[in-house]
Amino acid sequence: xxxxxxxxxxxxxxxxxxxxxxxxxxxxxxxxxxxxxxxxxxxxxxxxxxxxxxxxxxxxxxxxxxxxxxxxxxxxxxxxxxxxxxxxxxxxxxxxxxxxxxxxxxxxxxxxxxxxxxxxxxxxxxxxxxxxxxxxxxxxxxxxxxxxxxxxxxxxxxxxxxxxxxxxxxxxxxxxxxxxxxxxxxxxxxxxxxxxxxxxxxxxxxxxxxxxxxxx
Length: 216
Fold this sequence. Notes:
This protein has 8 helices and 7 strands. By secondary structure, the chain is of the alpha/beta class.
């Protein structure tokens, strides 16, 4: 009986793990990526789902500002991840545009986090002058940054690190907007308050299938 219970638990765990992670890779990604010289990362569309009582203590503007900041942090954390791999010689001959430059170029065109979704990936890539663009969504029930978490702890009375987050990361080709790579992962449990921790966990296994990382 004990063996049956253990087997049942294992099967359920396997199903849950599969449901929480999905990866799509364009069969031509490696070949297409050979022509890429610069990739850009735009702010992720973030959603912070607080409890009703917590949300009642925040204004709509405060919640919107919190979500935007979370989206920017994922963008900069992703940029840092690429820079570290490049420094270690683990990336192909590819450059990653500084998010500050990306934001400045978009701002000059009147594009910000409020209207990003009005533009296609190829349009955004052309505007910021890159060969591929990374974008995505981020959902969490607590803010990732330690500062934001502490501020909300004082404001609405909760503390602690993020304990549930879902990241959906996409890579689109600049020329035709074709989807080259899509990785969706749910991270649960205590993962620390650093956005870098989240990105590291997100990319740990998926990066092996990312065309911009050198294969062993």
